Each structure stands twice: as structure tokens, then as C-alpha cells.
């Protein structure tokens, strides 16, 4: 079994080293199984040293000019050699235990894709409540958080990958399409509840509750229009770090 670990990265020179170090350690979970893996970083037109940081850590670096998360993931996946793709955000730190649980589910042969519940590295009480609510909904609805997605490569390519019409919520769109495909293949999509993925709480530190509420309110009223507009999804693209 060959696993391709794909990391989309836009101006991530600060947090990427910690992510790559965590991934390097987590990859040891594959050793007892005799599995191989590769790390691919897609530099999504960064203006900082993201690409250099990735190369210095031994990752394969590819470049995507259009600044869009789904497109960056697709570009990284296009060069991947693995039987399975694992998409990890550049501000997230998977553990050995999480990779081991993912490998166990892949080896069992029942899943076509999956994700993990998330845990923020630091946050206010109200944010922890929202994170817990999301994790609960994620398990029930089998919606994968974009920060950690594992998917069989053939299934990912059969569906055409992430939508390049969406600038946010592209992981939810992919989740819906994968669930339908899983039914056709008599398989399933699963969310790992424990261990959780540790990911950065920086967005809730960089943006105000008012900014989040305004975005989600407008997205609820006109989801396709909002999610297809890069400017409307500025929280993910304005480069605030």
C-alpha cells in the first residue's frame, strides 16, 4: 500500500514546519504494515518561503497559480502516486495514533473515504462548544473536515476531485459526492472520533465573531453564490496570518 499525503499551503512558512514534523512522525504508523508514503506540498502561489520550507523538510513541492484551496488540493493530488490520498491542512498536526487508526480502517476494506473529528490547539469556551457541535454533526452526517480527509485515489479521480467552482465548503461538497459513490460501491464513509486531529485555532484569533457570523449568515441565504465568490470567502484567502 502506498499513501500520498497532500498539503495545500498558502503563505504557511510559520506553521508548516510544525505540520511537516508531525506528519513525519505520524508516518511511522505505516512501518509495521510495510506501507510506503510520500509527502506533497502544493504551494498555492505563496509570497513567503512556504516552498523553501517544504523542500528543506524533504517534501515534494508542486505549484498552483490560482489561489483556491480545492484547486491546490487537486494539483497536489494530480502528481500523487499513492493508492490512497490523505489531505492535511498546513496548520494541522496529525498524530501517530490518528494515522494508525486511519490505516486500520483502510486495511479493513470497508471505507472509500473518511475524516476525523478535530480539536483546536487553543480557543475560547464558545469556540470549543462550536467545535464539539461540528465534530458531533460530522460523525452523524459523515461530513469530512477539510483539515483531514483520506480517500481512495481511484474514487477521488472518478469524482473529479474537489470542486473548483467553490472557494469554501468544497470538502462538504466532496463528502456528499463520496457518500453517494460509497453506496454504489457497497462501502462507506467514516469519521474517526478518537483520536482527534489537532489543528490551529488561529482563525478565531484573527477574525472577530461578527465577521464569522456575517459570513455564515450570508452563506446560509445564498450558499452557491457566496461559496463561489473568492472575495466573499475572504476569511480563507486574504492572507491574514
Structure characterization notes:
The structure is a single chain. The model has no long low-confidence stretch (mean pLDDT 91). This protein is an alpha/beta fold and 241 residues long. Strands 3-2-1-4-7-6-8-5 form an 8-stranded mixed beta sheet, sandwiched between helices. Strand 1 (2-9), helix 1 (16-26) and strand 2 form a beta-alpha-beta unit. The protein is globular and about 50 Å long. The N and C termini lie far apart (36 Å). It contains 11 helices and 8 strands. The protein has a single domain (2-200), classed as Spore Coat Polysaccharide Biosynthesis Protein SpsA, Chain A (Alpha-Beta Complex).
Could you give a quick summary of the protein structure above?
About 45% of the residues lie in helices and about 20% in strands.
List the helices and strands and how they pair.
Elements: E1 2-9, H1 16-26, E2 36-43, H2 50-56, E3 60-63, H3 69-78, E4 84-88, E5 92-93, H4 96-108, E6 111-120, H5 125-141, E7 148-152, H6 153-158, H7 170-184, E8 188-199, H8 202-206, H9 209-221, H10 223-227, H11 234-237
Parallel strand pairs: 1-2, 1-4, 2-3, 6-8
Antiparallel strand pairs: 4-7, 5-8, 6-7
Helix pairs in contact: 1-4
Amino acid at each position: 500500500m502506498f499513501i500520498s499525503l497532500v498539503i495545500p499551503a498558502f503563505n504557511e512558512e510559520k506553521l508548516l514546519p510544525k505540520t511537516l514534523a508531525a506528519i513525519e512522525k505520524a508516518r511511522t504508523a505505516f512501518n509495521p504494515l510495510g506501507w510506503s508514503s510520500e509527502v506533497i506540498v502544493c504551494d498555492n502561489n505563496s509570497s513567503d518561503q512556504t516552498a523553501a520550507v517544504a523542500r528543506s523538510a524533504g517534501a515534494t513541492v508542486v505549484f498552483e497559480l490560482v489561489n483556491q484551496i480545492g484547486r491546490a488540493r487537486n494539483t497536489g493530488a494530480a502528481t500523487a502516486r499513492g493508492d490512497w490520498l490523505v489531505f492535511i491542512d498546513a496548520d494541522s498536526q496529525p498524530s501517530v495514533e490518528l494515522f494508525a487508526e486511519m490505516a486500520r480502517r483502510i486495511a479493513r476494506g470497508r471505507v472509500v473515504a473518511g475524516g476525523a473529528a478535530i480539536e483546536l490547539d487553543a480557543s475560547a469556551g464558545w469556540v470549543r462548544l462550536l467545535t464539539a457541535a461540528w465534530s458531533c454533526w460530522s460523525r452523524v452526517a459523515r461530513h469530512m473536515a477539510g483539515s483531514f480527509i483520506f480517500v481512495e485515489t481511484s474514487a477521488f479521480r472518478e469524482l473529479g476531485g474537489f470542486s473548483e467552482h467553490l472557494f469554501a465548503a468544497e470538502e462538504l461538497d466532496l463528502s456528499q459526492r463520496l457518500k453517494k459513490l460509497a453506496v454504489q460501491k457497497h462501502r462507506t464513509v467514516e469519521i474517526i472520533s478518537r483520536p482527534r486531529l489537532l489543528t490551529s485555532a488561529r482563525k478565531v484569533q484573527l477574525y472577530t465573531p461578527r465577521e464569522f457570523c456575517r459570513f455564515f449568515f450570508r452563506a446560509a441565504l445564498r450558499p452557491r453564490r457566496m461559496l463561489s465568490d473568492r472575495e466573499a470567502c475572504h476569511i480563507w484567502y486574504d492572507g491574514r496570518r
